[in-house]
Amino acid sequence: MTAEAPATPRSHGRVAIRASVRPRDLMEPPEVAGAWTAHVVTLFPEAFPGVLGLSLTGKALSEGLWRLETVALREHGIGRHRNVDDTPAGGGAGMVIRADVLAAALDRTPPGLPVVYLSPRGAPLTQARARALAEGPGVTLICGRFEGVDQRILDARGIEEISIGDYVLTGGELAAQVLIDATVRLIPRVLGNQASLAEESFSSGLLEHPQYTKPAEWEGRRIPEILLSGHHAAISQWRADEAARLTKERRPDLWRAHLDGGDSAKDRQLSGASHQSRDRREQRKDQGDEPDR
C-alpha cells in the first residue's frame, strides 16, 4: 500500500490574495497580504491556536493582523507507522526526533524566516527578542518532544534555541504559544492601546510599577494618595521610583543591567549553562564515566 501524501499545512487566520481557478467560499473572510506569520512544526497541530485564539490575539488572528500555520510532524514520519523518533545514539532513556523527519517538515515552511527550536537549554526569551521577531515577516517554531531533536538538524540549519524558563515541559507546544503571544501583541493594532506597551515590565529594562483601580479603599487598604492627587509629574515620579524599588528587590540581575547597560538575559544564560555543565559532570560521575576530582 502506498503512503499517503503529506497533508497541507493547517492554516489559521487570513492569507495573501492569490489567483485561483477554485471559487472561494463566500463565507471565508477576505485575505490579507503581508501579515506576520507563525509556522509551527508540531506533533499536535490540534493544540493550536489554543489560547492564541482568544481575547486580543484571537481577534487579531481573525482580522488577519497575523497568521498561524501548523505543519504536522507525523505526516513526514518514516514507514508504515510514520515514526518520527528513534533511540538515542550511545544509549540512554527516551527517544530523539530524527533529523531527516524534521528536515522534511521544515522544507514545508517558507525559507528566509528565523527558525526557533523551543528548548530548555536555549537562550532566555526576552522582550527584546520578541520585539525583534515582531518586526520581521514571521517565524518558524519547532515544538520538541521526548528527549529532544537530533543535534545535526540544529547545526545544519543554524536553528536558534530559545527557552521560556528554567524548567522542563513535556513538549514545546505551550512554549511556542508563549513566544507567539509575547511577539504578536507587539504587532501594531493588535493591542487596543499601543501606549500601554511603553509602561509594561521590561519595556524600559525595569519591572512595572504597581497598578490600582476602584474602589479607592478595599478591605482597609487604600490606593496611594499620590495616584489620586491629579499631579501628573508627581505620579510619574512615584511610578518610576516604584519600578526601580521592585526591580532592585525582585530582579537584581535586571537592576544591574539597567545601571551598567549589561545584558541580564546573557547573565542568566551563562548561569544556566554553568548549572547544566555541573549537572552533566555529576551525572557522568554517578555513571562512572568521570573520575572524582
From TrEMBL:
It catalyses: guanosine(37) in tRNA + S-adenosyl-L-methionine = N(1)-methylguanosine(37) in tRNA + S-adenosyl-L-homocysteine + H(+). Its main location: cytoplasm. Residues 256-269, 276-293 have a biased composition (Basic and acidic residues). Specifically methylates guanosine-37 in various tRNAs. Residues 256-293 are annotated as: Disordered. The gene is trmD. It comes from Paracoccus sanguinis. It is an enzyme of class 2 (transferase). Homodimer. SUPFAM superfamilies: alpha/beta knot. It is found in: Cytoplasm. InterPro entries: Alpha/beta_knot_MTases, tRNA_m1G_MeTrfase_C_sf, tRNA_m1G_MeTrfase_TrmD, tRNA_m1G_MTases_N, tRNA_MeTrfase_TRMD/TRM10. Residues 39-256 form the tRNA methyltransferase TRMD/TRM10-type domain. CDD domains: TrmD-like. Its EC number is 2.1.1.228. S-adenosyl-L-methionine binds at G144, I164, G165, D166, Y167, V168, L169. GO terms for cellular component: cytosol. HAMAP family: TrmD. The keyword Cytoplasm applies. GO terms for molecular function: tRNA (guanine(37)-N1)-methyltransferase activity. This is tRNA (guanine-N(1)-)-methyltransferase. Pfam families: tRNA_m1G_MT. Belongs to the RNA methyltransferase TrmD family. GO terms for biological process: tRNA N1-guanine methylation. Keywords: Cytoplasm, Methyltransferase, S-adenosyl-L-methionine, Transferase, tRNA processing.
